[in-house]
Amino acid sequence: MNEKKRQAFRLTAVLAGLVLGFSGLLATSAAAEPTTPAEPTTATEPSTATEPTTEDNTPYIVGGGVVSQKKPWIAALHRDGGFTCTSTIIAKRWVLTAAHCVAAAGKYTVRVGSLDRTTGGTTAKVSKVVKHPKYNWPTADIALLQLDHDVNTTFAKLAGKSDLSDGKAVTVYGWGSEKADWSGPLPKKLKYANGTITKVSCTDSNANPRVICTKTNGSIAGGDSGGPAVVRNSSGQELQAGVCAIGHRPAGSGWAGYTSVVAFRDWIRSTAGV
Questions:
Q1: Exactly one of 23, 78, 114, 141 is catalytic; which is it?
Q2: Catalytic member of 201, 225, 253, 260
Q3: How far apart are CA 24 and CA 219, in angstroms?
Q4: Contact 200, 37 (CB under 8 A)
Q5: 5, 41 in Cβ contact below 8 A?
Q6: One GO BP annotation here (predicted)?
Q7: How many structural domains are present in the chain?
Q8: 132: annotated active-site residue
């Protein structure tokens, strides 16, 4: 495939004409898992913008579904009052997200314990941003955010190496755009898509052990950056395997790249103590 068509892009929310998001996660019921993967399509690198002033709840059905069960460990990340990325709570004062989500200066907060990114649950201020020291997008696109106070919620459980394998079922979550062309407003409710982990490369590198590639029935884009890719263990427990970092344009291809939690497990443990 032409190298130019394999450019990956940062998935920060691009609004006012180029809103990125979970374009495949809009249906009211889940679509079936994909079968034969297709090659990723053209990708570009968007810029960060603020949230639009108007809301539109029109359902654009591209695939995936609206989350109905509580996911108290998934949090909406805001910068200067506007939604920017998805994230997860991994400890009382620690949030896991993508480093490119917090590359811009600003005041960051998280909304915890609500499927609606605009209301409900509780909010906490980010007192410290810790990007991985080797972050240089898309390399090491992972960050930890320290909160200004403890949050009382269920924390995300992190996957181990034995929990991952090619063809493993995966679910991805996020609050991204509802349109395949990434335009229009962001949805208020958390979305999901089902799929599998695949060995087929979704990055410029044909073999990157620090990136987990997924193929789902929905496509990843802006507002889904920093969100989790989740697998289940033999007991059915959800385990976070990756952090959303890379997608492909136009939405609809279903391909995405997630920074591997396993690859950065030691750094997470030494920084956040979990």
A1: 141
A2: 225
A3: 5
A4: yes
A5: yes
A6: proteolysis
A7: 1
A8: no
Query: Can you tell me the distance from the alpha carbon of 255 to that of 125, in angstroms, rounded to the nearest whole number?
Result: 32
> d(Cα 263, Cα 229) in Å, to the nearest integer?
14
CB 156 within 8 A of CB 171: no
100 is catalytic: yes
Q: Exposed/middle/buried for 159, CB within 10 Å: 0-12, 13-18, 19+? A: buried
As a whole number of angstroms, the distance between CA 146 and CA 134 comes to 19
Tens of each residue's pLDDT in the chain, 274 residues: 444 344 444 444 433 333 333 333 333 233 333 333 333 333 333 333 233 322 222 222 245 688 988 999 999 999 999 999 999 999 999 999 999 999 999 999 999 999 999 999 999 999 999 999 999 888 899 999 999 999 999 999 999 999 999 899 999 999 877 666 666 677 789 999 888 998 776 665 545 779 998 888 766 656 788 999 999 999 999 999 999 988 765 555 677 889 999 999 999 999 999 9
User: For the stretch 90-116, what's the b/e string if a residue is b when 16 or more beta carbons lie within 10 angstroms of its beta carbon?
Assistant: bbebbbbbbbbbbbeeeebbbbbbbbe
127 catalytic per annotation: no
Task: Please say whether the beta carbons of 22 and 63 come within 8 A.
Answer: no
Is the pTM for the entire model greater than 0.85? no
CATH number (domain holding residue 207): 2.40.10.10
